[in-house]
Amino acid sequence: MKKLKLIILITLFPTLIFSQGVELVPFAGYMFGGKIKYFEGDVKFENGMDYGLSILVPMSPYVELELNYTRMESQATFSPNPGYPALNYQKTNVATNYFQIGGLSKFGDVDATAVPFGSFSLGATWFHTDDFGDEWRFSIVLGLGVKIMFSERIGIILRGRLMMPMLFGGAGFGFGTGGSGVYVSSVVAPWQGDFNGGLVIKLGG
Hints:
- The chain is mainly beta.
- The chain contains one helix and ten strands.
- The chain has one domain (2-202): Porin, CATH 2.40.160.20.
- It has an eight-stranded antiparallel barrel.
- The longest helix has 17 residues, at 2-18.
- The model is unreliable at 176-184 (pLDDT under 50).
């Protein structure tokens, strides 16, 4: 984890130093955890508070590059389906982490106080559990929101997002093993999403 944070800081440092008009957006919100349906049962991620940081780098009056990190700490439960007596109901703490890079596209008058926008990003999602190990998945995030600037330097962002980790080729999680050595799998990813708000801090430019 420490090495990962160091890599992220090294990657972002040149962006912060050399970009004009870069904006920092610390945010918090509420995430919907979603559910994965397996043949053997269901894994449900509980809803909870999420938080993170976006870095917005202006590319044109209408487009901004977005670097985003989002984290939610909650619990996940595995509920076996009838017909799988070797599997047990299990619960574990889980941290859901999104690492994304993408774009934010503004609509209408970009000089207005309130400017609506849409966002799209690609990246990775890291599920870290206390009892069942870690899983990394490719993910896509779509969003709609509004940026409201109260001055040249300070504003807020309000946004809703659809967050989609991808599972390929029967990949899955180690939930529900119950010591039996059974590894549940699925090609269906959890559909997650959130509503969040953040403070816009413009650094320069």
